[in-house]
Amino acid sequence: MEQQIIQSKRLKGTIRVPGDKSISHRAIMMGAMAEGVTTVDGFLPGEDCLSTISCFQQMGVDIKQEGSRVVIHGKGLKGFKEPAAVLDVGNSGTTIRLMSGILAGLPGHFCIQGDASIAKRPMNRVMKPLMQMGATVDGRENGSFTPISIRGGALHSIDFLSPIASAQVKSAILLAGLQADGRTSVTEPERSRDHTERMLQTFGVDIEIEGKKVSLLGKQRLKAASIKVPGDISSAAFFMVASMLVPDSCITIQSVGMNPTRTGIIDVLEQMGARLSLQNQRMQNFEPEADIEVHAAPLKGVVIGGSLIPRLIDELPIIALAATQAEGTTIIKDAAELKVKETNRIDTVAGELTKMGANIETTSDGMIIHGKTPLKGARVNSHGDHRIGMMLAIASCIAEGETVIENKEAVKVSFPEFFESLQMLQENE
Ligand code: S3P
């Protein structure tokens, strides 16, 4: 399906974005592992999180979802049964990687696959440590790619030194570690998002965090919890940048998650010259949240790399768009992980924005963006990647004339009402 978008005169208003994707997945998984009734409010009913629900339902967990409310009747790890069919994760890397950590400790046989994008994404980063813990894993190229099969069972703890800063790797090992004998630890080169650590505490698990090392003792039981999911900062990022770029704009985004492992986007936009303020800062279930007000402002180029990258990895496509409108050069480095996301985002960002008039050089671990370049309407494509689709929609708001976005339905993965929310903010009279 295609979406036509014309240049916006300005954006104005107050909106909410859907629930945080990372937190929504974890709430379903931990609710399924816990004993008792877990309720989730503010759940993201996007395709990725619905894939998580259906995988756990296939394993016999009673989960009822209506819009953004979910009720999970957990029976603990003993409540899981061997699924009679392949578990389909759709487009969701978080589902396959975190769920594998849980399956590794369950007696039984589990087959997992996803869509064409999942088939290209590396799974060995998770499967290797799970094998070290005692799980039997197979898949294409020695367990590196889907379809993956896991025969779970008794696990032993490991001290894992992760070569990459990845919350998916860290979380999979911690979820396996919960079922293992002894103390499991994961040490990362840089700290990745810590929603698993925070939510495990909400479910009553003791967890130790010392710098870049996280550890927990196995065989702890999870107790059902009431989870309130904040708005997703990764979804809010599109409207934050839109409001900065469309002249005369001012928008407020309410109840956005402000976890410090996710707020790299705010640090970078402020460094670029953004006019934004955080209001009503508060805590919910160990997770901070706030309202964000953003005004249009002139921007300047910046250098983005190092420990900042894991704090804004999913926002790099929309930051790249902001950089096309900044005075001077923006360098994004140390971000080779972009190549193994839903698409190779170095190629898809540069390829699609170049069609609209941007000047972007690709590098082996990022991009060099020369600003400021006026953008013009063009025919562009999401390549089935939700964040590329949404970034291109915001690019269309500042491009002269009309833009057509092919494969617009990709946005349903994380933000089903994205185009409606954008329309609400547009004042094109
Ligand atoms: C996620 C972690 C990140 C992120 C992804 C969601 C998570 O991936 O890009 O969208 O929920 O744990 P990595 O952990 O592979 O960096």
UniProtKB/TrEMBL annotation:
Its EC number is 2.5.1.19. GO terms for molecular function: 3-phosphoshikimate 1-carboxyvinyltransferase activity. It catalyses: 3-phosphoshikimate + phosphoenolpyruvate = 5-O-(1-carboxyvinyl)-3-phosphoshikimate + phosphate. The keyword Transferase applies. It is found in: Cytoplasm. The active site is at D314. Residues 7-422 form the Enolpyruvate transferase domain. Pathway: Metabolic intermediate biosynthesis; chorismate biosynthesis; chorismate from D-erythrose 4-phosphate and phosphoenolpyruvate: step 6/7. CDD domains: EPSP_synthase (cd01556). Phosphoenolpyruvate binds at K21, G93, R121, Q168, R345, R387. Pfam families: EPSP_synthase. Keywords: Amino-acid biosynthesis, Aromatic amino acid biosynthesis, Cytoplasm, Transferase. PROSITE patterns: EPSP_SYNTHASE_1, EPSP_SYNTHASE_2. 3-phosphoshikimate binds at K21, S22, R26, S166, Q168, D314, K341. InterPro entries: Enolpyruvate_Tfrase_dom, Enolpyruvate_Tfrase_sf, EPSP_synthase, EPSP_synthase_CS, RNA3'P_cycl/enolpyr_Trfase_a/b. Gene3D superfamilies: Enolpyruvate transferase domain. The keyword Chaperone does not apply. Catalyzes the transfer of the enolpyruvyl moiety of phosphoenolpyruvate (PEP) to the 5-hydroxyl of shikimate-3-phosphate (S3P) to produce enolpyruvyl shikimate-3-phosphate and inorganic phosphate. Monomer. Belongs to the EPSP synthase family. This is 3-phosphoshikimate 1-carboxyvinyltransferase. The gene is aroA.
